[in-house]
Write a structure and sequence with these properties.
Helix 2 (18-85) packs parallel to helix 4 (118-146) and helix 4 (118-146) crosses helix 5. The chain has helices at residues 3-12, 18-85, 92-111, 118-146, 153-236, 250-322, 329-357, 370-380, 382-388, 404-420, 479-489, and strands at residues 366-369, 391-394, 399-402, 429-436, 440-447, 493-496, 504-511, 531-533, 548-549, 562-563. The chain contains 11 helices and 10 strands. The longest helix is centred in the middle third of the chain and has 84 residues, at 153-236. It is α+β, with helices and mostly antiparallel strands. The strands form 3 sheets. The protein has a 6-stranded mixed beta sheet with strand order 6-7-5-4-2-8, covered by helices on one side. Strands 1-3 form a two-stranded antiparallel sheet. It has a two-stranded antiparallel sheet with strand order 9-10. Keywords: Coiled coil, Kinase, Membrane, Phosphoprotein, Transferase, Transmembrane, Transmembrane helix, Two-component regulatory system. Residues 560-583 have a biased composition (Basic and acidic residues). Residues 219-271 form the HAMP domain.
Length: 583
Amino acid sequence: MTSDQARAARSRHGRWNAQTWFNVVLLAMAVLLAVSAVFGASVLRTAAQASDRLIDQITVGRLQAERMQTSLLNQETGLRGFAITGKEEFLQPYEDGLSAQRAAAAQVRTVAPGEKALGRLESVERLSERWRSEYAEPMIEAVRRSGPSAVSQLRAEESKAAFDAVRRALDDQNAAWSAARDRARAELERTRTTRDTTFFIILAGFLLMIVTVAVLLRVAVFRPLARLGEASRRVTGGDFSHHVDTGGPADLAALSSDMEAMRLRIVTELEEARGSRQQIAAQAEELKRSNAELEQFAYVASHDLQEPLRKIASFCQMLQQRYADQLDERANTYIDFAVDGAKRMQVLINELLTFSRVGRVRQEPAPAGLNEMIGHALANLAAAVEESDAEIEVGDLPVVVGDRTQLVMLWQNLIGNSLKFRTPGRRPHIRIEAERGDGEWRISLTDNGIGIPAHFADKIFVIFQRLHHRDAYEGTGIGLALCRKIVEQHQGRIWLDTEYTEGARFVLTLPVADVPDAPDVSDGEAGAERTDVPAPSSGGTPASPGETAEPSAGVAADGKAARAEAGDSHDPGNAEGTRAESG
């Protein structure tokens, strides 16, 4: 559509664009809404005031007036019983009624301060006070002093006449409250009628406005929009040869022109996009192949490097043994350095093989009780547990679905990490517990070791990130990275609880599995009944802290060690307070 065509379209539909139409409509509706809101609020306020007066003032006042009447009757009954029998217990209704009367009178004055019926309340109080002071109290005093015979028949009749006056005042008060209630009901009914009429008028006005707006918008906006939408659907449906040219308000005509230009650009860009998709698909396939080759290379390279390292270590040791009498102390030291370096390289290669194996070689997922997996891990760490005299507390943990070998490796690394980084001079205490969350198990391992500063909470899970010099703690810096990889392979998360400062606390999540034998550990920490797991005396090759433990049957598919090294993943600080880099 050319600029001349756009101007012609605008001239056919006037100067107003769709925005102007909407603004006019919204302004009219806003004015109607404001007027309706003012009248509606006024009517609602009047109705609410009438309702509040009836419910909160008159109804409550009437109930309290009836309560006052009951309390006065109780006073009269108690006095009569006491005058006849002379027994003090008959005065209890009198005393209770007096307290209830005063409370009811105070409540009436509080809830209905402006009601005319309050004048009747004052009359009741005046007459009841006269009856008590002139008859009730003297009669009580006389009976207490001389017994029931002290009350004469004449005195009793005078008391009855005085209380009858109180009864009449009470009846007048009740009648006054009933009249006030009837007036309030009539007022409430009038306000409700006014409210309903007002809202009916407002509703009719809104309906009329809606009909008017609908007609105007249909003619001025929606019909041109429908034509524009039809043209757009044809283009989006694949008919890129369809020319977009619709009438309507000025801005719709401009939009039509813009859509026509967009159609032309789409035609051009579609051709370019087809070529780009093919190129991206080829690159993705190449990247996938490259990653697979890189992973395989890491595995093969790590595996093939072990034999040369074993030869280096073996021949260095043979050289030292056969020519020991010909070597001086410095030569022996150099040989020891070479052997130690070769052995540490072998440890690192084994760790790399283990790390590479996770995600590449996986067993078929199967139900795995975490208590059983921890038992296997503790068997592999038997020597370290016994050497450190660790106390390990394991709660009632759930059954999950996953790779049993990897789960044993996970717990062996986490527990070995806590055993290695224990506080000198303190018996290690490790607690493992679980609680059920929203579709996942939240499992924590807490120790009383040297702890980890919070600002290293992310760094400890990065491969090869050592936070200590190897002279302070042995290791390769792979353990916790391996733990994170295992947990993520099981659709979980693992992190360091930085709020815990009495040691270290690792928290991990695993999905809840539909396993019949899974324990119910919901709503609270698992292991309300704790089981101390003793250090096993046998089962698996023991491993010292930070070294590889040879797993028992089923721990690793190829018999390789599942490391107890936790990646040296604790933090610099002083020698006693943190897991620190020394030097």
